[in-house]
Each structure stands twice: as C-alpha cells, then as structure tokens.
Design a protein that fits this description.
The structure is a homodimer. Helix content of chain A is 37%, strand content 20%. By secondary structure, the first copy, chain A, is α+β, with helices and mostly antiparallel strands. Among the domains of chain A are: 102-218, 2-Layer Sandwich (Uridine Diphospho-n-acetylenolpyruvylglucosamine Reductase, domain 3); 222-328, Alpha-Beta Plaits (2-Layer Sandwich), CATH 3.30.70; 335-420, Alpha-Beta Plaits, CATH 3.30.70. In chain A, strand 17 (372-375) and strand 18 form a beta hairpin. In chain A, helix 1 packs antiparallel against helix 3 and helix 14 packs antiparallel against helix 15. Chains A and B meet through strand 9, helix 8, strand 11, helix 9 and helix 11 of A and strand 9, helix 8, strand 11, helix 9 and helix 11 of B.
C-alpha cells in the first residue's frame, strides 16, 4: 500500500475502455468531483472514473486494476463525510450510480434487492403504494451501496436500526475479482461467519459492494410528531434517557441545542424558544401513538419541558421536521461564506449529557460557532463547526475541539464516530478506540486485499 | 489442522498445571462429558479439561497450547446442538463456566457486562427487581459466552433479535494469546470493521470469548399470551405472515404442528386440538397489548383459526407456555427409550409454508416420527427426529430427510441453520449455502488462527 500508485498509462486505459467503453472518463473536472465528498477534507482526484453497469463489469474492472495494483475507489453519489472517496494514491474510481436497478421488492418478505447505485429515495418512491418503506435515513439521498459501505444511520435508527440491522445480504466483488454473496435472504442464520456485517461499514476497503438486500418496514398506521423545549441540555437528555428506559418505541428523538435553535429561527423565520429542544416522532397504531405521546409528554414535563407541541397531520409534521432538516444550512447561514465541518461521536446514553455539556463548554471557550444536533436516542450527536476554511488558525482550533471531543467520547466508552464513518478523516483515532483489535482489522484487510488496492488509506492507515 | 494433535505429554500437563493448578482435569469421565453436547452427534473427548478463572488465565493457557499447536475447545455448559464442543482432534477443553461473575449491570444504559460463564437465567435472576431483562432465550440455560459463540436465538427473537443484535461488545483471546475488545459500549458505531458481529457465531474458531456486554430490555408493563389452532399448516403460517406484515410487534410467535400437539396432549395430559397451533406472546403497555391481541385474533379468524384462548395472568401464561417448553420431552415420550435428533433451518417467510409442508410430507413418507416446531415469525423451524440411535437404518433415513430439508431451505434462499449453528454437524452444507463466500471465511480463519488450533473442524472443514 505504500508504493506509489502507477499512473494511468495508455495500455491500462485501453484495457479499461475495452471493458466499459466511453464510460471510462479521465476528464479533470469529473475526476475532481469524484475525489471529493461533502466533508471539509481535501479532495484527491482519481486518475480515471469508470461508470460501471453490472457486477460482471466491476469484476473485469477490478481484475484489470488488480493486475496493475492500481487503487480502486468505489463511489456512489459522494455524500460521505470523512473523505471516504478521496483517491489518496490516485487510481480508478468506480462510480456505481448507474447501477440503479431495483431488482426485486418482496412485500411478503418485507425486503428488497437493489443494485448498489439505487438511492434510498428512489427505493422509497418505488414502493409508495405498497405500505412499505426503507427506514434508514441519513439525510442525504445516498445510494444503498454507499450507505452499506459506511454503515449509515440517521434519525430513524433508534427505532428501526442502522444499516447494520437493515442489510440482510449483499454481493461484493473482492480485490481479486471473485464475487461473493455474503448470506442468504433468511432473517436469521447461524451458518458461519457474519460476512454481511463484516462488509457493512468496510468503506470499500474489502471489496466493491454491487448489490444489497435490505429489510423493509411497514408504514405505520399513525405518525405523530412533537417538539418540546427544555430549561437546559441536561433536562433534555434526561428526558431522552427516561423515554428509552420506559420502553417507548419512539421512532425519532432528536436534540437541537440552543445555538442550533437560534440558527433555525433566524434561517427559517420561526419563533421556537431558543433553548435545548427535542423533536420526537411516534409511529404505531392510532391508539398506541396517542399513548406514546402522553407518556413522553409526561416525562418531558417532569424534566421541565415546555410547549409540548404535537402534530398529527402530514403538513404540520412536515413543517415541524423541516426545521430539523434545515439544521445544517441554518448553521451555515449563521456566518455567510462559511463552510461546515461536520463531525460526530456516540457514547453510552448515561454519559450523553456529560459528553454534550463538556463539548458545548469547550466549543464556547474556543470562540468557535458550532451548533450541536443529536440522534440522542442512540447516544449519538453531531457538531457542525461553522468555519472559514481559509483561516488556518480557526481550522486548527476546530480540529483541536474535535479531537478533544473524540477522546472524551472514547474515554466514556464511546466511539469516535457513531455514523459518519472513518474515511481518512478519523483514521488517527482508531488506535485509541480499538487498541489491539485494530491489528485484527488489519489482518482481515491483508487476508482479503493483500496488495492493498481497495480504497487505500481509509479505516486503516497504509 | 490436518496433522495429528500432540497428545498431552507430562511437560505440557505440568505447564497447564502451573497456570491453573488442580483445575486441570484429565479424568476420563470429565473429559467424556466435555466432548459431548446435547446433540445426537458422537462425542470426542478432549485430552484435558481446564476450568479457567480469568481472561489472564485463558491467555496463559492459550499461549501454552499455541506453543504446541494443541487444539483449544471453549466450553460453556455444553448445550450446543451440532457437536460444537467435540474435540475432534483431541486437545484442551477450556471450560469457562466458573468465569461466572456479572461484572456490571447498567440500568441507565440498559446493558450488562458479564464473564463468559454467566448463564442467561443467572443474569435475569440478578436483575429481577430492576425492571430489566435479557431477552435471548434459546430454551437451555446456556452461558452468555456459548450463546454468543453460536449466535443463539429463540422464541423472543422475532421482537428482540438474536445474539447478533443483542451483543454490544465482547472480549476475546486470540489464537496467539492477544486479547481484544471488539468494540466500545456505544449503541452504534461506524468506526471500522464490525468485529463484534464477526465473533458472534464464530463458534470458538477465531478465539475464546471471555467477556460479553449485552443489551437489556425493559420488562413490559403488560404481557399476554394466546393460543389458536388452525385447520392446516398453511393457514397457521399465513396468519404469521399477515401478523408480521401488519407490523404487530409480537414478542413470540411459535408454531407447533399436529404431531407435536398430539405429543403434548399425551405428555402433559392436555386437551388441545391436535391441529397446527400457534402460540403467541404480546408485550407492551396494557392498552397496546389488548390492541395487539385484537388485531392478531382477527387475522387468525380470517385464516380459520379457532379457540383463540388468551391469558394475561402470569400463572395462566406459564401454563400455556409450559406446553411449548415441554415440546422436546413430549416428542421423546412418543417413543420411550428414543433419542432426539434436532435440526433447524430458516427461510424467507414467503417460503415458510411451502418449506414446512414439503418437509412434513417427506417425514411422513419416510415413516419416521418427527414433530415440527418453529420460531415462525423469523421463518425458522425445527424438526426433532425421535430416533433409536442404535438403528443404523433409521438414523440414515433421518439424516437423508434432514439433508433434503436443508437443501430445500437453501434452494428457497434460506439457510442450513437458523440458530443451532454449524458445529461439525452441518459443515458439509456450507459449500451449497455460501459458495465462494466460504473461501472468504477460510481466509479470515487463516488470518486469525494460522495453525488452526481454535476449535478445529467446526464451521470449516480442516
């Protein structure tokens, strides 16, 4: 992995073109765009981008790359957040976004099989009238392949799980061109190592995921949303803990801190109280949703929660959640011309209030602008540093706050990333988090990709 | 792995004794007992059994074995069902049952950390008054280490998941004596390969699990059980499918076929209708449980379900479920002096009726006695062949029916085992199920255990 990658010579290019014709692109702007994700991390363009159309084609492309030990970087729509798609050593980007056929939707099994380039919204729209939905919602309209590779998560995870729980099986092309299907479609199995879970979250470093079978969920009979403001962060987080412990099957439970609420009011011309606020969503039968709302409203009141507004009608709900969905842009609008530097950690819920409060204090002390937003039911929260990327000093301070937050989370038995993944942005934190287990990850990587051609430099330092 | 194992010489024995004193046992009956599980598979005694007391001791024992390339077979309480603990090449059995300290119960995080030898009942009894329970219930009072190693499951899995979903983190001693902790305690993480899931279900072939952190669930406010008999198997299974699709969060949904119901009536002097029968359990708030029962009762009626008896009081419920719990012994009582040959498969739920019906027909045609019982919400079902183990012809016929059932399940995109695991009993079916993916499992095994000393012959043929 440390040898310099062979640049694309004419022979190699001809070989790729023999496989994928004019879907092999070396145009600088296309390469530029494919070496960069939505994060603040510097992009690294690949030497070529190939728009693959089938698993067989991926096999041929991987074999061609493997023969020259050229790096392969799988790409969906580039919405990752830790530099996952950067071609750190050049090489070939395999863009799978045109592999976007929904292969099967099986209502009776509540699952669907899709090519890796199908996006979550595409899948959901295709099922609109069938009473089913795919639950994992990371915000961006990412591809299922990308979401699988990064073990994506999002607002619904507290009830429906992350990609870890929602991928039933997948097809991957290994570094030597072999194709595996990681498991059958049965809901459970005790037949050997859990290769599905090994590939979920492997960030393209073990193979190229070309097909994914996901669980679907039934669209609930009733959905209700609610918002409540709290006197302080601790009160809000304690309400979350009490809700989870009471066994309320809440579908979403999101925390927005006072900085974020202020940003929202300004951005969306709203009049929310500028205090730590929880956004809830409840799914179930009509009766059960009412019961859930009553239980949580009572818990919120116990912790000083006010203004328990709730909304049943789709339009009202949409309006309520729009605020949450606008959070990122509202944050950026706090400072025109700025960029967002998004990061996330996840801790056991008992440590969540402490972790958020210490982080809030650290941010405030640093003089940076950075709202906190969290999928708090899972103990997961995000900080978006609203920075001027050209201000070296400011970037350094943001990175220092980020580093302290990550080490704080790890010290609390948490993780350096709950859902954004490692990419190359968090590689440095894995030794602190995993210790000797990192050597096991390395051994697995070596066993499956001895030449280190699969998305080198991600998860594991070369 | 193919070289004959070194028998226990005096030097080796002395080394083991230097580590674990008189907890190193070579007594024939102890060895015999440790080489055999609850299955029909022939036992293979290890050369010695060591009752380990700590992770550090396991490290020293593994190092001593590794230096001599002696096989290591981890052992909990021996309730596995596919010969998982058989010392096929001799070697040292590491009995972890005395590592039975509950290290922490954390109600606020709803998790608990335990040494591998803690049993599920021990953990549940320790939390009796805390409103929490550990949900995975494979029937036997297995150890958490053993349940983790075999990816155990059981009646509650349809609602609460299997060990795959309920293990948050674990500590394992690798084949070279290194100790890893597979992840932190956060509920979700995107920080690298999912080693937790890799070790869950690895059956002692990648390392010795010495500590497990599991999720806990809140004891529901209300629990209700119900039983309903159906005109035929298809009607019962279709009720299950409709229940799952309706999104009823049923906690248990068990099918007993007419052979099993007849066995139960005879064994427990009950008067159930001798027809395919579903046993349900509903968990939730008092209101939600009533609503669930009403929904499912209506669905059952649609499919001709009769006698929808339901029970709320703990004693009534216990009585109802006792029948389900007695299923195995009731089956054996059909034929005094017989042994049970238990096997399981799991298919996508759309194929469940077909798979069960074809299997029932095949059993009946074979002239064997074999009730079918299933955790049908997951598409998982069991057959217990009630056999005379000394009758070679009968055993062969049972094995043939089993083989046809497994291949049928695989052809329906199912798995050769939903929850019993591979052990050495189902090793032969993995190529049909996994194809090329089996080579990936082998590569991982080689990477972590190059000398093949960790429970050789299980999951992967040497």
């Amino acid at each position: 992995m440390s040898a310099p990658a062979p640049r694309l010579d004419d022979g190699f290019l001809a070989e790729l073109r023999a496989i994928a014709g004019d879907r092999v692109v070396t145009n600088a702007s296309v390469c530029e765009r494919h070496g960069r994700d939505e994060s603040y991390h510097p992009g690294h363009p690949p030497d070529a981008v190939v728009f693959a159309h089938s698993t067989d084609e991926v096999v041929a492309l991987v074999r061609a790359c493997a023969a020259r030990k050229a790096p392969i970087i799988p790409f969906g729509v580039g919405t990752s957040l830790e530099g996952h798609v950067a071609a750190l050593n050049g090489g070939v980007c395999l863009d799978l976004s045109q592999m976007n056929r929904i292969l099967a939707v099986r209502p009776e099994d509540m699952d669907a099989s899709c090519e890796a380039g199908v996006t979550r919204k595409q899948l959901n729209e295709s099922m609109r009238d069938r009473g089913l939905f795919f639950s994992v919602d990371p915000g961006a309209d990412a591809t299922l392949g990308g979401m699988t590779a990064t073990r994506a998560s999002g607002t619904n995870a507290v009830r429906y799980g992350t990609m870890r729980e929602n991928v039933l099986s997948l097809v991957a092309v290994l570094a030597d061109g072999r194709v595996i299907r990681t498991s059958r479609r049965a809901r459970k199995s005790a037949a050997g190592y859990d290769l599905t879970r090994l590939f979920v979250g492997s960030e393209g470093t073990l193979g190229v995921i070309t097909e994914v079978t996901v669980r679907l969920s039934g669209i609930p009979e009733a959905i209700s949303a609610a918002v409540s403001a709290f006197p302080d962060l601790a009160a809000a987080v304690n309400t979350v803990i009490a809700t989870i412990q009471a066994g309320v099957p809440v579908a979403r439970i999101e925390l927005l801190d006072e900085v974020q609420m202020k940003a929202l009011n300004r951005y969306s011309k709203l009049a929310h109280r500028e205090a730590p606020t929880l956004f809830f969503e409840f799914h179930g039968s009509a009766k059960s949703v009412v019961e859930q709302v009553e239980t949580v409203a009572a818990l919120a009141r116990d912790f000083g929660g006010a203004d328990f507004q709730w909304a049943i009608q789709p339009e009202e709900r949409a309006k309520l959640w729009q605020a949450r969905h606008d959070a990122y842009y509202a944050a950026l609008a706090l400072r025109p011309g700025s960029r967002g530097m998004a990061t996330d950690v996840c801790v056991p819920i008992s440590r969540l209030a402490e972790c958020i409060l210490e982080t809030r204090t650290d941010i405030d002390r640093s003089g940076l602008i950075a709202p906190i937003v969290g999928h708090v039911g899972d103990g997961n929260f995000h900080v978006v540093f609203v920075v001027d990327p050209d201000d070296q000093n400011e970037m350094r301070r943001a990175e220092e706050v980020n580093e302290r937050m990550v080490l704080r989370a790890i010290a609390m038995d948490g993780t350096c990333t709950g859902e954004h993944g490692v990419g190359y942005g968090k590689v440095e934190f894995l030794p602190a988090e995993h210790g000797e287990a990192l050597a096991v990850m390395r051994a697995i990587k070596r066993a499956l990709d001895p030449d280190g051609i699969m998305n080198p430099g991600k998860i594991l330092r070369p």
